[in-house]
Amino acid sequence: MDLETIRKFTFQRILSEDPKNKFLAILGEIQDQPAVIIAEKTAFDNPTVSELFQPNLTPDVTLTERNDVYHSYTATIAQDIAKPGIKATLIWPATQTHIRKYSKQARRMIRETPELYQQITLPYITSQLGPRIQWVYNILNHTAETDRIVYEDTDPNTGFILLPDLKWDRVTLSSFYLMALVNRRDLHSLHDLNTTHLPLLKNIRSSALREIPLQWPTVSPDQLRLYIHYQPSYYHFHVHVTHLEYEGGDGMAVGRAWLLDDVIAQLEEMAEGRGFEGRTITYVLGEESGLWKEGFSNVKG
Amino acid sequence: MDLETIRKFTFQRILSEDPKNKFLAILGEIQDQPAVIIAEKTAFDNPTVSELFQPNLTPDVTLTERNDVYHSYTATIAQDIAKPGIKATLIWPATQTHIRKYSKQARRMIRETPELYQQITLPYITSQLGPRIQWVYNILNHTAETDRIVYEDTDPNTGFILLPDLKWDRVTLSSFYLMALVNRRDLHSLHDLNTTHLPLLKNIRSSALREIPLQWPTVSPDQLRLYIHYQPSYYHFHVHVTHLEYEGGDGMAVGRAWLLDDVIAQLEEMAEGRGFEGRTITYVLGEESGLWKEGFSNVKG
Questions:
Q1: Which of the following CATH numbers is that of domain A4-101: 3.30.200.40, 3.30.2350.20, 3.40.30.10, 2.60.40.10?
Q2: Of A38, A200, A299, B254, which has the most beta carbons under 10 Å away?
Q3: Chain B interface, best mutation among A262, A280, A292, by max B CB count within 10 A
Q4: What is the ipTM of this complex?
Q5: Residue A240: partners with Cβ closer than 8 Å, 6 or more residues away
């Protein structure tokens, strides 16, 4: 495909945009086939920022407002193809799945009572087991990603495998991201946790806080955030382990993320054998998710 | 001050940067006085995005990678002073407080036991009462911001005042942000909550979910996120109410934010009269905060 192809993109509509991240996803067509362009502005180029507001880096400058010591400006910033202003991905031909993935998704707050869990969530979770989490079993069986294992505790009840999340490059601390996958296969999510699982949860906490600083000596235990998602994106119980520098956005927000320490503290308050099964759990759900479309969207509010 | 002043800025060091938001804060000097520049790239300009990758908007384009339907590009994007590439604020002369405010702050995970609360947190909270929260009492007394009140329940035990947070422009739904300030003055934070406060917490929840859609008919109850900060930024008990579209970043992350629904659910599990006082509470603390500097930094880990 030559460079001229992207010039043939004809615009149809904005799928989503994020002014804070300077992000944009647009839908259009190239040669009668759907095309999605995902674009974002580039970050400031570290070696040149020392010249910010020097004429060669910032040729035009305007003072737009002044109040006391605060002066606001707008300016143009030098760019060329080696120091570009934007980076973009073209998906072409794009499928409906691509288009949905980059479409702005409205969200809803769900108050999932134990009854709604049985009626709606459990059948959905059941549909997500089997082949969809085979990749987890491949890791636990040592048939895939064996060389990526950071730590393994083989105890069938309290053991787990700790390995880097695919989102992490294994170098940059500000995006430090590991995942603890439990050995046992009977726990699908937060909802299944009760006081009998305290030894498992405490083992994950203490082992991760001990092992990670051994392997990454610049990381101290009080720089790690351990949390659980509900709903998770796959239904084999796992714990996220990130550096406090990591900005997780929605994945770290209340209404999706539960601090492991707080889950442990809550279970410790409960009577023997009790757990989250009996609780109403409140969380945010995207309207594009299967659980919303096939489940909660049909519930009368 | 003429435009030439900012050209005299001499660079010293980067205070902080955020590649995701394309944000940068740098320290330097102008005429021997400290100066801080806060710069960010501009968002995509909505009316012109339909021309993205047309030669007039994107003069130079390079294909950097291709894998199946995914094509990666970099490009330059047209700008002039009316459609600038960056916006910036200069603070000059800048004080140490300005410099600290924009400096990258390391963070620590605190496991605050009931004993550490008594020893360290409580004396700190006590130092933050009185004149520092007079502004809250001015609202509760109707001596300030009276015209901004969205809803008021005058009950001395379960009542509260709901009003827009100063961060919100009162128009844009994606930054919808209200605050519920309780009438009673004996509750400083999450730590003080116990089962006797359930009527107060439930009243805030049900009243906010009822009143907000009455005043903003495009907002439905299942689009609102109600949460509490621990540690809060001021020690008069209050609840944050935001739209699910609002991206709160750190202020919404586990380790800082507690979903009101989950706090209620936890208290409902507890025996009569029990509460968070007896619990270890885990949270993230910035190393520039008073509670870290004057308190937890002195604790042996």
A1: 3.30.200.40
A2: B254
A3: A262
A4: 0.80
A5: A165, A177, A178, A179, A225, A226, A227, A228, A229, A251, A257
